[in-house]
UniProtKB/TrEMBL annotation, chain A:
This is Peptide ABC transporter permease. It is found in: Cell membrane. Keywords: Cell membrane, Membrane, Transmembrane, Transmembrane helix, Transport. The chain crosses the membrane at residues 12-30, 101-122, 134-155, 202-221, 263-285, 305-327. It is a multi-pass membrane protein. InterPro entries: BPD_transp_1_N, MetI-like, MetI-like_sf. GO terms for molecular function: dipeptide transmembrane transporter activity. Belongs to the binding-protein-dependent transport system permease family. It comes from the Bacteria.
UniProtKB/TrEMBL annotation, chain B:
The keyword Transport applies. It is found in: Cell membrane. This is Cytochrome c550. Its main location: membrane. Gene3D superfamilies: MetI-like.
Length: 338, 319
């Protein structure tokens, strides 16, 4: 295990270095001179030179890349052009809201996807199987921004069952102010016993979380179905069936467990994917997360903010992959040898 | 010569690549299996047993036809472009305009038919670019092994760390928004999947007797790679391409929805949703039909790809 751990960690460090380099390269492609953007169109030659010197634009590219990486490591992610705040600080405030939304969506997705997959595998090639395959295929083919608009207009606009937008009713900040610990509103409200904000947040979560959950639920259902069908053909599952366990019991107690590894790793990867998908949903539902921040940044061509969001999600992706591999290595010795 | 080759495969067998590779569309294709059956035969097999895949193939054929024939079958061909008819703005669906008209009076059905051209063009261009780069790098990595493989795979890992929509988003912000930008931006994030998939297959192909034989006869490495290894390694990629087309269309629509892709007067479904969204509560058809067009197209690619995958999977695990 220690050898596997160091090798896998070494790979992750290389990938992070590459991610930083690639983000730097993309941001250097920005058309226009950053010094002009800073000093303004009517700046004199001397002012431009001063701006260039200030941002280190006269240094060789390697030095600039090194300085960029050093600043990132120190937590200096640049200053956003549209909020005028440090990007790292903006992201630290926005990310917990995204985590709240995607976390809720993943709970829904697992709660819906796994039982549907079991159902489809139990009635393989029958009507339930066909319905689950059809539904899950539709779920992964939905354009998420459109689904968000439709759900918002129908269930919040026309029917008025749920709030249209936002994370919770902001007037509650006056009547029952929230004490902040984790910045994840629903968790803070729960641990401080702030029930008005808790119920309001839960109520606001329903629609966006369902929309974000559609894609992962479809993928999880398909994956669970395929893994269960493969496992239930194995000797141990057939033995259990011969011993008199019912079909559902065999699937859930004997086939689901060995299939848990691939399904769990898929869930971790889909989680990272859902964060990006959540961006579009946040923009529609005005959810105060990284996605809305990115959408605002796009509108104002705010490159430091875009770079920050890109970097944050890429690092999350690397971390999710690493966690999955290490967990699987811990659980399954065969993975370590490969 | 033989000993040398055996040492090579033994070492290759230890590389940490997983045997299954999940595509950007999130669906899983078994790799490492050399498939003898052709996609065409598999398609016939899929059609016999799989209602969904057949439906996907039929729908897709209809969409391709609609895209090709758009200038002739669209009720108002001039509405695919710059035409405006302010007097007919926001007519609800009816006899003259089956899907209604948009805010400048253009027929939505016509624009959806022309939008099929944009979406299919983007899908084909992205997949062709990504497959060309990914398969070339993958087959080289799989055949060469050793440090060449390690370098290519680590570069691939870096690109894989960026979710497709995100890096395209960053690229689309720094480039000028256009259909070409969307194609480049998505292709940049898409090729690593094919590199990984091809590398895994090419590695097992490279260990075969006929490759050994070619090497013993003194055939130069580039010829072995592109004449012998490549044609025997591409079948899984063709299946993956069909699975991924839906994902490309969804990503491209999302970029255009965010204003980073196609722009007026190009007919593009994501852009149509964005332009109509402020009118959605009063004029439901301006958003509903373009969105359905995206859904149906992505769905047909997905079920067709899934059917192909199942038909080509020798273990038949998901049938």
């Amino acid at each position: 295990m220690p050898r596997y751990l160091t090798r896998r960690l070494g790979q992750a460090v290389l990938v992070v270095a590459g991610v930083v380099g690639l983000t730097f390269a993309v941001m250097r492609l920005v058309p226009g001179d950053p010094a002009v953007a800073f000093a303004g169109p009517r700046a004199t030659e001397a002012e431009l030179a001063a701006a260039r010197a200030r941002f280190g634009l006269d240094d060789p590219l390697w030095t600039q890349l090194w300085n960029y990486a050093r600043d990132l490591a120190r937590g200096d992610w640049g200053v956003s052009l549209h909020t005028k705040q440090p990007v790292a600080q903006d992201l630290a405030l926005a990310f917990p809201a995204s985590l709240e939304l995607v976390g809720a969506a993943m709970i829904v997705a697992v709660a819906a996807g796994v039982p549907l997959g079991v159902l489809a595998a139990r009635f393989k090639a029958g009507l339930p199987d066909f319905s689950v395959r059809l539904t899950s295929m539709l779920a992964v083919s939905l354009p998420v921004f459109w689904l968000a608009l439709v759900v918002q207009t129908v269930f919040a606009g026309n029917l008025g069952w749920f709030p249209v937008a936002g994370e919770y009713d902001n007037s509650l900040d006056v009547t029952s102010p929230l004490r902040v610990y984790t910045n994840i509103t629903i968790v803070d409200a729960l641990i401080t016993g702030n029930w008005p904000i808790f119920t309001s947040t839960l109520w606001h979560l329903v629609l966006p979380a369902l929309v974000v959950a559609a894609y992962p639920a479809g993928v999880i259902a398909q994956m669970t179905r395929a893994a269960l069908i493969e496992e239930s053909g194995q000797d141990h599952a057939r033995l259990a069936r011969a011993l008199g366990f019912g079909r559902i019991a065999v699937l859930t107690r004997f086939a689901l467990r060995p299939a848990a590894g691939p399904v769990l790793s898929l869930i971790a990867l889909v989680f990272a994917y859902a964060i990006v998908n959540g961006f579009l949903v946040e923009a529609v539902f005005n959810w105060p997360g990284v996605g809305r921040y990115a959408a605002d940044a796009i509108r104002s061509l705010d490159t430091p903010a875009i770079a920050g969001v890109t970097l944050l999600v890429a690092l999350l992706y690397v971390a999710a992959n690493l966690a999955v591999d290490l967990l699987q290595g811990l659980v399954d010795p065969r993975v370590r040898g490969r | 010569m033989k000993d040398e080759h055996d040492a090579g495969t033994a070492e290759a067998g230890k590389t940490p690549d997983p045997i299954t590779v999940s595509g950007p569309g999130g669906l899983v294709v078994p790799a490492g299996v050399v498939l003898r059956r052709t996609p065409l035969r598999a398609l016939a097999g899929a059609a016999r047993g799989d209602l969904l895949a057949t439906a996907g193939a039929v729908l897709l054929a209809a969409i391709v036809l609609a895209a090709l024939l758009a200038p002739w079958i669209a009720p108002y061909p001039e509405d695919g472009g710059t035409a405006t008819h302010p007097a007919q703005a926001l007519l609800s669906p009816g006899a003259g305009h089956w899907f209604g008209t948009d805010q400048v009076g253009r027929d939505i059905l016509s624009r959806i038919l022309f939008g099929a051209r944009t979406s299919l063009f983007i899908a084909v261009a992205v997949l062709a670019l990504a497959a060309a780069v990914g398969v070339t790098l993958g087959v080289v990595a799989g055949y060469a092994g050793g440090w060449v493989r390690d370098v290519i795979m680590r570069v691939t890992d870096v690109f894989l760390a960026f979710p497709a929509l995100l890096l395209s988003l960053a690229l689309a912000v720094v480039l000028q928004p256009s259909v070409a930008t969307v194609v480049v931006a998505i292709a940049v994030t898409w090729w690593p999947w094919y590199a990984r998939l091809t590398a895994a297959v090419a590695q097992s192909v490279s260990a075969r007797g006929y490759v050994d034989a070619a090497r013993c006869l003194g055939v130069p490495a580039p010829v072995i790679v592109f004449r012998h290894v490549l044609p025997n390694s591409v079948t899984p990629v063709t299946v993956q391409l069909s699975l991924d087309a839906g994902g490309v269309i969804l990503t491209a629509a999302a970029l255009s929805y965010l204003g980073l892709g196609a722009h007026e007067p190009t007919a593009e479904w994501g852009l149509m949703v964005q332009q109509g969204q402020s009118l959605f509560t009063t004029d439901w058809w301006v958003v509903t039909f373009p969105g359905l067009a995206i859904l149906v197209t992505a769905f047909s690619f997905n079920v067709l790809g899934e059917g192909l995958r199942a038909a080509l999977d020798p273990r038949g695990r998901s049938r």
